[in-house]
Amino acid sequence: MSDDFELDTDDLKRRMEGAMANLRTEFASLRTGRASASMLDPIMVDAYGSMTPINQVGTVNVPEPRMVTINVWDKSLVGKVEKAIRESGLGINPQLNGTIIMLPIPELNEERRRELTKVAGQYAEHARVAIRNVRRDGMDQIKKAKADGMSEDDQKFWESEVQDLTDEMIKAVDAALETKQAEIMQV
Fold first, then answer.
1. CA distances from residue 65 to 20, 37, 57, 60, 180 in whole angstroms, order as listed
2. Burial 36-62 (b: 16+ CB within 10 A, else e)
3. Does residue 142 sit in the same domain as residue 157?
4. Which of 1, 92, 102, 173 has a CA positioned 20 to 30 A from the CA of residue 36?
């Protein structure tokens, strides 16, 4: 009856890759001592009565390796953007120059580097958990098909397919974490 069971491994892979994409986004927001426009992505500004990303109220540039500038389009928002950056927890002290906000990126000390590697580890663990949840969904579909009459050989085949995909994605998370931690600890 269930010989035509076909697990949608493409869907499982897409969902696992979504967890990886989210991890890359979280890693990009971690400050490593080098300037990056993406480090401002999580910061929201109260503009015109709604919370708006910084890149939608001004132009974000990286003119030099240790400097980020934001050219705020509306003069009335300069103070709000500055306040949002100060309260973001990035540890950056904005400097105003008219409608341009300059963010000098200070050197990271050893203690702060260690803290950031721990944060990176937490982000990676969240990604691993998300990947394992997708794996569990796939295994549940296989168990349901087994209850509907799928052969044991087919069950073992699909379970190994899901496990191989999971192992591959977990390795990718571990590799990304190792790269990010090396980048953070680099002086």
1. 27, 11, 23, 14, 18
2. bbebbbebebebeeeebebeebbebeb
3. yes
4. 173
Identify the CATH number of the domain in which residue 18 sits: 1.10.132.20
Residues in the chain with pLDDT values less than 70 = 1-4, 31-33, 89, 187
Looking at the structure, do residues 43 and 97 belong to the same domain, yes or no? yes
CATH number where 87 lies = 3.30.1360.40
Query: Mind listing the pLDDT tens digit for each residue in 155-172?
Result: 999 999 999 999 999 999
CA neighbor of 21 nearest in space, from 182, 179, 173, 184: 173
**CA–CA–CA angle 74, 80, 81 (5° rounding):** 75
CA dist 27 and 160 (Å) reads 30
Tell me the pTM: 0.68
